[in-house]
Write a structure and sequence with these properties.
about 60 residues; mainly alpha; single chain
């Protein structure tokens, strides 16, 4: 069960900040990518507890 939770937790976490670094390096729209990183980080404050709670409830059935 622990392996399932670790995999699920990895799916619920925000996108990597490396995306913004690559965008800046390759002269792409890095402002958009930093916005996406920030938004996914904020969303993960809600999604991680929800995902883990639902998963623990579902796997106990």
């Amino acid at each position: 069960m622990l392996v399932k939770e670790v995999i699920l937790l990895g799916q619920a976490t925000p996108v990597a900040a490396l995306m913004a670094i690559f965008s800046k390096t390759f002269k792409k729209n890095y402002l958009f990518s930093t916005t996406v990183v920030g938004l996914t980080t904020l969303c993960s404050l809600v999604t991680i507890p929800i995902f883990m709670g639902v998963a623990q409830w579902f796997w106990k059935l």
